[in-house]
C-alpha cells in the first residue's frame, strides 16, 4: 500500500497513520507533508520505527528551503518517481 501525506503532520491523525503502516508499505511525503521528514520532527522516530519505505518529494523539500534538515531515513524522489510508486501500489491512502 502507498500512503501519501499531503498536509502537515501537525494537521493529521499521525497515531492512526502510523498504526496502519506495514513493513512492505511505501510512505510518501509531499507538499506540506514533507515536514515529517525534518530531523527535529516529533513524528520522526515513530515513522522510522514503522519500517515502511520512506520517500519525500525533493521539489517540495527545496521549495520549503529545508533540504539541509531532512532525515537520511527518507529517500528524496521526483514527481516522476511518485508515478512509479502509484503504479507499484494497487491500493493507496491519502492523508
UniProtKB/TrEMBL annotation:
Subcellular location as annotated: Cytoplasm
InterPro entries for the chain: DsrEFH-like, Sulphur_relay_TusB, Sulphur_relay_TusB/DsrH
A Pfam family it matches: DsrH
KW Repressor (keyword) present: no
Any one GO molecular-function label of the UniProt entry: transferase activity
Alphabetical UniProt keywords: Cytoplasm, Membrane, Transferase, Transmembrane, Transmembrane helix, tRNA processing
GO cellular component, one term: sulfurtransferase complex
Keyword Transferase on entry: yes
GO biological process, one term: tRNA wobble position uridine thiolation
Top-level taxon in the UniProt lineage: Bacteria
Signal peptide coordinates: none
Bilayer-spanning residue ranges: 27-50, 70-87
Subunit-structure text: Heterohexamer, formed by a dimer of trimers. The hexameric TusBCD complex contains 2 copies each of TusB, TusC and TusD. The TusBCD complex interacts with TusE.
NCBIfam families found in the cross-reference section: PRK13510.1 (NF010035), sulf_tusB_dsrH (TIGR03011)
Function: Part of a sulfur-relay system required for 2-thiolation of 5-methylaminomethyl-2-thiouridine (mnm(5)s(2)U) at tRNA wobble positions.
Protein family per UniProt: Belongs to the DsrH/TusB family.
Name of the featured protein: Protein TusB
Record organism: Buchnera aphidicola
Lineage per the UniProt record: Bacteria, Pseudomonadati, Pseudomonadota, Gammaproteobacteria, Enterobacterales
Gene: tusB
Amino acid at each position: 500500500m502507498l500512503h501519501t501525506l499531503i498536509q502537515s503532520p501537525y494537521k493529521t491523525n499521525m497515531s492512526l497513520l502510523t498504526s496502519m503502516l506495514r513493513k512492505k508499505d511505501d510512505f510518501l511525503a509531499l507538499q506540506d507533508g514533507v515536514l515529517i521528514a525534518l530531523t527535529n520532527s516529533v513524528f520522526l522516530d515513530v515513522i522510522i520505527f514503522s519500517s515502511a519505505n520512506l520517500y519525500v518529494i525533493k521539489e517540495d523539500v527545496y521549495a520549503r528551503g529545508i533540504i539541509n534538515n531532512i532525515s537520511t531515513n527518507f529517500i528524496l524522489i521526483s514527481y516522476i518517481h511518485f508515478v512509479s510508486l502509484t503504479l507499484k501500489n494497487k491500493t493507496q491512502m491519502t492523508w
